[in-house]
Specification:
This protein is α+β, with helices and mostly antiparallel strands and 192 residues long. It is built from 4 helices and 7 strands. Helices cover 22% and strands 35% of the residues. α1 packs parallel to α3. The N and C termini lie far apart (37 Å).
Length: 192
């Protein structure tokens, strides 16, 4: 199976300050989004493996877009999400976000030890989705617990799936709730 990509979008949000404190470096969040035709819309299919296999190429495409938009910064956190249109199932979005999809993302970012947090749902066009973000190398780094709200006014259509990969170059601005620091997590297992 080859997925039909109907359109792509890249959203870049760069925040320079918060609560009167300048961010150094600024916090840049990027969402690389593909709107794909759902090959299983309107029908139940038991075996979703062909869709999972096809997600590898999609992961490569979204990774390239995310890395380019995040430049000149490198990624410290990541997350993924999907919205299946109403003729599909939530499981269709999940099939496009498995490890097969994620490995090209990790390679493009130069690694990632932690699992990639995700969220999926089945919804109408215009539904907002909050993509969770966490440190790409150590899941329990609190300063990097964040998210990016994505609103696609005209997607996904009933026979589409919106597939979203987000990255950020740093943790939250003014993070100060304690916990494991990114500098202290270096070299540890991704599920610190």
């Amino acid at each position: 199976m080859q997925l039909e990509v109907r359109r792509t979008l890249t959203i870049v949000d760069t925040r320079f300050s918060e609560a009167e404190h300048t961010a150094d470096p600024p916090l840049r969040k990027v969402a690389a989004i593909a709107i794909v035709r759902n090959p299983y819309a309107g029908r139940y299919v038991e075996d979703l493996q062909p869709m999972i296999d096809a997600s590898v190429a999609l992961g490569e495409q979204l990774a390239q877009a995310a890395v380019a938009a995040l430049a000149p910064y490198g990624a410290q956190s990541y997350g993924k999400a999907g919205i299946a249109g109403l003729a599909g199932e939530q499981e269709h979005a999940n099939a496009l976000l498995t490890t097969a999809f994620a490995e090209p993302l990790r390679r493009a970012l130069g690694g990632g030890k932690a699992w990639i947090s995700s969220y999926t749902k089945c919804a109408a066009p215009g539904t907002t989705i909050d993509v969770p973000l966490a440190s790409k190398d150590a899941l329990f780094v609190r300063s990097h617990y964040d998210g990016m709200s994505i609103h696609l006014p005209d997607a996904p259509m009933p026979d589409e799936i919106a597939v979203i990969f987000c990255v950020a170059n740093r943790g939250r601005i003014n993070a100060r709730v304690g916990g494991l620091r990114l500098a202290d997590a270096k070299g540890q297992d991704g599920l610190v």
